[in-house]
Design goal:
Length: 209
């Protein structure tokens, strides 16, 4: 297993594809040749400071948005009922290849943004462990991104610990068939950790079967 620390201070700030906002890239996997988009999956923070359209992505792109800061917003997704994103730390899924516009509830918001193509599945979980009680877990995907929502954590594997503070991340990349066990320890009562695991779709289907 390869472990890559991704501290908040090192996130790369980039404009949205349509120029309507700013994002901070956390991690991504580049697309193969001939893909309609430049990634197969991507994780980023996005700042939304005005009403308007979201960027358009290719066919088969799915999105999961989790509100981190702000009063929230409503999404108008083509051919679908409006989606309310008002509750912090509550993931919302929607089609990323449909025209989508945003209406802010009361000013600027920041979200944790996950996108992936049809060749990958994405499993997202939010965990609130008991403070100072180690919890053993196995990464939920071939690649997993751990994102510290609140508080602080120690993530330990083979006697080596990695510390996470608010909005820091840790990327875990597994070899096929690898299933390591790690230990997470919440260091504050408010600590919350988001885990998003990406898996090639054919492997996810085999596991489900």
């Amino acid at each position: 297993m390869q472990i890559t620390p991704l501290p908040f201070a090192n996130y790369r700030r980039v404009p949205w594809r349509n120029g309507g906002g700013q994002a901070m890239d956390i991690a991504a996997q580049a697309a193969t040749a001939g893909s309609a988009d430049e990634f197969t999956w991507r994780v980023a923070l996005a700042e939304i400071d005005r009403d308007g359209p979201f960027s358009a992505y290719g066919q088969g792109i799915e999105r999961i948005i989790t509100l981190l800061d702000g009063a929230g917003f409503d999404l108008d997704v083509a051919d679908s009922p409006a989606i309310s994103v008002r509750e912090r730390h509550m993931p919302v899924r929607f089609r990323g290849d449909k025209p989508t516009s945003c209406r802010l509830q009361d000013g600027r918001c920041i979200v944790f943004n996950v996108m992936h193509d049809h060749a990958h599945s994405a499993q997202l979980n939010i965990i609130t462990p008991v403070p100072n009680q180690p919890l053993i877990f196995s990464p939920p995907g071939r690649t997993t991104v751990l994102f510290c929502l609140l508080g602080s954590f120690d993530i330990k594997f083979e006697e080596k610990a990695h510390s996470l503070k608010p909005w820091d991340s840790l990327r875990l990349d597994l070899a096929q068939g690898e299933a390591p066990l790690l230990t997470m320890t919440a260091l504050a009562p408010e600590s919350r950790l988001l885990l998003v695991g990406f898996e090639p779709a054919e492997e996810a289907a085999l596991h489900a079967g």
